[in-house]
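Query form — protein BHLH domain-containing protein

QUESTION: What is the three-dimensional structure of this chain?
INPUT:
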Amino acid sequence: MTLPIPNSPTSSASPETPASPTAASDASKDSNSTTGSSPTTHPNGQPIKRKASRRANTAERRATHNAVERARRETLNGRFLDLAALLPNLSQIRRPSKSAIVNSSIAHIHAARRHRLLAARELRLLKLESDALRRELNEWRDRAGLPRVEEPMRSEGFSIVASGEVEVLPVPTGEDSEEDEE
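ANSWER: The structure tokens for BHLH domain-containing protein are given below.
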């Protein structure tokens, strides 16, 4: 879209450029004196080409934006491929679709959650059985006059897994932290 330059004699696509710096200053004095608008020359006497600089600036900004967007897409596509390589059913496929990667990721997370809940239930049952056996052992040891067997020390992770809560993963350090900015 072409916009006319205010106070210009024509509304053509390119502004007229005076032949000499003195002619440019004379032309800017004439246009400034009649309308009181801002000066059309730099302090060094060169004429300001507003339309050309706007176009160049817009084209430059568009090119920069396109390059940034292309880099973002390439990074995102690379991360999709990294995710696909981590999924057991997609690790052998060369270029799975993004939809297949997302769907497989969701299925894998649901399966892992089910397995974790089953493992937590199994761990709780084993702990109950261990406690019952320890109680029985301690009854026999009390009858025999032997010292009791105490419950073993367990880590915080044991109680987290046994309760079926969300697993706690260590925070990775290094280059992966930059994806959190998006």
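ADDITIONAL NOTE: The two ends are 33 Å apart (CA to CA).
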